[in-house]
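Take our chain:
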Amino acid sequence: MYVDMQIAVCYIYCQIIYQAGDDKMKASDLMHERSMALADCNNFFVSCERRVDNDLDHCPVIVLSSNDGCVISRSNEVKKMGVKMGDPYFKIRSMLASNGVAVRSTNMSLYQEISAEVMSRIKLYTDAVEIYSIDESFFNIGISNVKDPVSYCRTIKKDIWDKCRIPVSIGIAPTKTLCKLATEYGKKNEETGGVFWMDRARYMDMGFMSQFECADIWGIGRKISTKLDKSGIKTAADFIKKDEMWVKKTFGIMSLYTSWELKGHQAYALDTGGRPPKSIMVSRSFGNPITTYEEMLDPLLCFTVSAAKQLRKARQTTGKMSVFISTSRFDAEKFYANGRETTFIRPVSLDADLMSSAEKMLKEIFIPGYKYKKCGVILSNFSDISAGRQAALFEEENGGDEKKLRVASAVDSINREFKQGIIKPAALFEAPEHEKKWAPRSEFKSGGESKKDSPLPDGLRFQNHSEDFAS
């Protein structure tokens, strides 16, 4: 009985301390409230285009996806026109022209180069950085000698602008989910100067949290938010108030983690170790339809080599490989899609092994007479070889394979040094004047890149943001 009373008293005391506010928190609690920050480049692709072309600084700009298909980045002026993320270009071409909107094709090599510059500036100000995407990174701000985190982040923001000429917004919070909301708030509210601290006084204020819709919360998205809306849960405040066991039972453990993060309890720590991927997919739509087997084999092998390079960089081998091909989904009368997969008894990572398997699978699924618009390669079932490769019980000496792997790693290093595939399998070489039929269209591509843009979809991924879908 006495022990139960002690527990009850401790619980009540903790609740009082928790609700007391910032002015009564301990130093460790204050450090927790600014344990991490998120730097997010504003309209990143558009900002990159403006950096290499100053004439774009004072006019509306959009950047189109691969093959100039749809809008993937918009300047603030274009957002005010009502253009939404993902709008097909052919539907809004006339409207954009009448409003003097500058149009640019994706220039991924340029974006990756500028992204590397931005990330290197951030690393100068902290001891831990998690590069989340091509235009976002979480970083540690819980540094004891940083007395004013907002002022410190404003210094980072100014340095990135001065050195890279890329505008960024920075959100400070105790969790990644709150950092995301803080960054979005900083973008949309000019009085923040692009830097906002989501401290306890704010994320415990349900009036403040009610301005964030569930669809805009990192980890929820539109599919779950639709179900939440049917239950009367429309905002972050509504979600926070719901019983945690109900959230877990109804939407799963990941939604429960989101609930914890919105309450200031960290569920996702900074990942600075560069954990290996669970799978690798390389795919792309073609600039022009492909009709013959030989034309289809070329991009499939290119994508296979690209996937293999990413696999070796992660120090992994694959036990399973899948390929797929398809015609345009808009061609309902002659639509065809198919795929095959194969498993490897002994996991592999060499180009030759994967290319041979890809060619065999393509022969099984390719049917002449169709106009193919897409193909892709997926690698999965990885085995880590960063600490060495374990041989099977009855396996012969694999010294030859080890030598081949070292040669492949050396080739990868040379290609990275020269920033293009100067050494590659013979099957991928073509005459200098030969233009790949499947290469993406880029009618509005800017100059300014320092290296040849590859048709291979390598590099950091691009994340869509909640404000990109706002009207």
Remarks:
- The chain has a mean pLDDT of 84.
- The CA atoms of residues 95 and 248 lie 46 Å apart.
